Structure formats: C-alpha cells, structure tokens
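Quick one, probably user error.
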C-alpha cells in the first residue's frame, strides 16, 4: 500500500540489519488521490464491520439466556467434592449433572458465562466442564478469568464445544478438549483424570535433566513457590525413583527432541502403575506437527522454552498437583523463603554483554530490581575491558552473536586469564539446536540460556551459580 520495501543484510557471526524504506511521494500520492477517497472510506467502514463480526468474544456469545438448571449448590456438605458445569444447552447440562452425581460428586450448573468465576471461587470445584458458546461471556473469557485468578487457576478445565478449537483450547490452559456431540461418551475419562489429581496427597515433582545447573535452577524456582522436587540426571535413575517413591508429576527436559528422548517418554508411560502419571515435556525447540503428535502420545503437556516458560511450568505443575495459592499455609515462611532466595543475588555484580541496547535495558531493569550491580558492554572487547576495570565482577551474561568480537571468542579470552578461570559465564544464545550447548561450553561458558530470555529461569540460574558466594 505504501510502495515501500524491506531489505536485509546479514553476515555470519556479525548479525543482521533490516532496513524499511517508504517513498514520500508514493505515500503522498495515495493520500491525495481524490477519486478514491469516497470508496476508500466505505471500504474502511465495511472492514471495521467485518472485524467486529469476527471478534472472538462476540462470535462465541449466545444471544439468549436459557432458564437455570436446578443443581446441588444448596445441598453441599463440608468435605464433599464439587464439579462446576458451565453449559447453556439445558439438556446436555442436565445429562452432565446426572453423570456427576453418579460419580459421587455434587454438581453446580451455570447456563451463562458471567457467573462462572464467582461460582468457582465460592464452591471451589475440583474440575470445570466448560462450553465455549455461552450467554453474556464466552467460554474464552471465562477461561481467561479462571486462569488469571490465583484462587481458581489451579482448577483443571475441560472444554467442550462443537467448534473445532482443540489447539486454541489447550494453548489457553485447558487440560482437555472434547468435541460435541460425542463429548458425553468421553466424560468417564475426564472423571478418571480429575480423580487421579484429587486423590493424590503428596506434592512432589521429579525433574529428569542431564544439566545439573539447569535442574537446580528449575528446582529453586519451584521451591520458591512451595513445590518440592527431586532431581535425577539419568533416565534409569528417574524410572527407579518413580517406582520406589510417590511422585506426582514428572518434568522431562528433552532439549532438542531425538530418538532417545522419545524412548524415555515411552518407557515412563509403559511402566505398570505410571500410566496416569502427568508428564510435562520441556523442550528448547519449536516442534513440527509430526514431533508434537509423537510427543503427545505420552506427554500431558509440552512447554517450549520461551520468555514465559517458567511461569507456564508453574501453572502446569500447580494444575497437576492441584495447588491452591490462597490455601497455602505458613505464609510467613514462604515470604522468608523468597527473601532468602533473593538475598543470594543482593549486592552481586553482573556484567551484561549484548550488542542490542534493548536487551541490555530489559535485563538491567530486572537485575537491578533485585539490588544487583549491573555493568554493561556492547561487544567482546568492551567486556574484557570492563572485567579488567571491575575485578569484583561475580558473573557474566554473554551474548554469543556480536560484531567485532563474538561471545565464543570472548569466553575463550576470559578463560585464558588465570584470574577469571572460575568466573561464572552464562552464554545467551539466539537458538536451541543440537550442539549449541557443547559449542558454548567448549568456548569457556559455564552455562547457557536461550533467547528470548525467561527472567525467572535466568534468576534461578544466577542463584545456582552464585549460591556459594554468599
């Protein structure tokens, strides 16, 4: 429309430069075209109407509110478990309520979306059966409210709909998606899953990860949120632990999926007694459809390492362990635990090396909020000078792709200095591919983290590496 273009210049080990060019005359010509002004305005109005019609929330809002369905809300005794049914099809809602009662649960029915959150907060259901098309508020809005409330985000939500929206449902936090009209046949399986979560008493996670520092970082993060964990670096050790101990959830860090990783998954799920054990796969690679289908045969959840993956991990683990934030006891001890973890970083000096000032700004802001002293450099040469000027530096965050002197050469030069041979250097890489970690470690890095940087993961890694320097 603006008659512009984008050009790209890229050089190996140096970086990429994008240029956007828009001709002034071309843009002016479009604006001054009097003959097209009236049709363009009409087209804009029409386009806005189409957008409103396609609004996801509006599209899935039913026009009429049906009569309420009599349920068990006035007959719930202390200790009885509740299922919340959010469904505007009265006949289907009644069928679900009847099945709920047969399984020994009390049922609460809401035929409209705007009542769902308050019902969930007040009656604390062990599971939610949610339709997408609802009056007043759509199922998407209800889902967002449930997952954003600390009192309800742990509750497993099973979405039922005639709309083919399985992928969207799972991405928004649902544990399952059921197609209507065959959904009723799948309800027994839903209750099996709910009962498996509810009947567990212990809250322990097994982390299978061959990188001990990354495993400890994740364990630190989970511990700060009141979740106990155990770490195993070998798959055989992990399987033995599953057979001998009461584990509620497994986190398997696959890095880059390969045949061995699939064999691990298959081995865990085929062990007698472990068929229903929730398995969360943590991977540093965007998966192809084929890889995702293969993993989902055995895994309950897949988390790609992104800027928010640690929080997503906490949400998933909380869901499987059925942890209620408002119900956590010993709040003072929790606060103290957070303070102790943050004290590890308090007053420490970190050198951030990155040629992108936006990355430097965001990292500096996060680190300074925890009272860390931050010094910066935009390339390897500046980094070496900064280390010479600040010999008290405790840790280095080193971008591996920079001009002049890249991270690999910088790490090598750091290790050549005898005074710096034990300085923790965390490599920041732009991708997660087979061999990346080995390349970073061989160059002299102590550890690595991928972009976009997950701040929670980074802070956990820093705590692990700086723990001995307290």
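Nope, works fine. Designed sequence:
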């Amino acid at each position: 429309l603006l008659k512009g273009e984008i050009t790209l210049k890229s050089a190996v080990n140096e970086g990429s430069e994008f240029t956007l060019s828009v001709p002034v005359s071309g843009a002016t010509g479009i604006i001054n075209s009097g003959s097209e002004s009236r049709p363009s305005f009409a087209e804009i109005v029409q386009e806005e109407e189409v957008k409103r019609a396609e609004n996801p929330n509006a599209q899935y809002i039913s026009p009429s509110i049906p009569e309420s369905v009599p349920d068990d809300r006035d007959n719930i005794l202390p200790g009885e478990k509740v299922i919340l049914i959010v469904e505007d099809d009265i006949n289907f809602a009644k069928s679900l309520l009847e099945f709920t009662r047969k399984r020994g649960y009390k049922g609460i029915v809401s035929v409209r979306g705007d009542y769902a959150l308050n019902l969930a907060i007040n009656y604390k259901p062990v599971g939610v059966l949610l339709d997408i098309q609802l009056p007043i508020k759509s199922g998407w809005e209800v889902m967002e409210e449930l997952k954003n409330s600390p009192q309800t985000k742990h509750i497993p939500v099973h979405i039922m709909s005639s709309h083919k929206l399985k992928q969207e449902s799972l991405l928004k936090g649902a544990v399952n998606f059921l197609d209507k009209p065959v959904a009723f046949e799948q309800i027994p399986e839903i209750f099996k899953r709910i009962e498996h979560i509810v009947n567990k008493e212990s809250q322990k996670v097994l982390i299978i990860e061959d990188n001990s520092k990354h495993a400890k970082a994740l364990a630190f993060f989970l511990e700060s949120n009141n979740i106990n964990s155990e770490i195993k670096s070998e798959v055989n050790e992990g399987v033995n632990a599953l057979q001998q101990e009461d584990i509620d959830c497994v986190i398997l860090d696959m890095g880059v999926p390969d045949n061995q990783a699939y064999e691990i998954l298959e081995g865990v799920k085929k062990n007698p007694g472990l068929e229903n054990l929730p398995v969360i796969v943590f991977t540093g690679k965007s998966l192809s459809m084929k890889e995702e289908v293969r993993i989902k045969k055995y895994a309950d959840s897949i988390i790609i390492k992104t800027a928010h993956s640690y929080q997503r991990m906490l949400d998933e683990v909380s869901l499987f362990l059925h942890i209620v934030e408002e119900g956590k006891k010993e709040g003072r001890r929790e606060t103290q635990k957070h303070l102790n973890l943050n004290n590890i970083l308090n007053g420490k000096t970190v050198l951030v090396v990155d040629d992108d000032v936006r990355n430097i700004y965001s990292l500096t802001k996060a680190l300074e909020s925890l009272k860390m002293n931050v010094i910066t450099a935009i390339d390897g040469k500046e980094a070496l000078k900064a280390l010479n000027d600040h010999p008290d530096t405790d840790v280095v965050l080193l971008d591996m792709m920079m001009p002049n002197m890249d991270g690999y050469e910088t790490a090598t030069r750091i290790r050549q200095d005898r005074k710096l041979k034990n300085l923790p250097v965390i490599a920041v890489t732009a991708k997660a591919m087979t061999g990346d970690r080995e390349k970073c470690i061989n160059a002299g890095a102590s550890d690595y983290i991928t972009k976009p940087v997950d701040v929670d993961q980074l802070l956990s890694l820093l705590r692990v590496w700086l723990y001995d320097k307290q």
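DSSP finds 19 helices and 19 strands in the chain.
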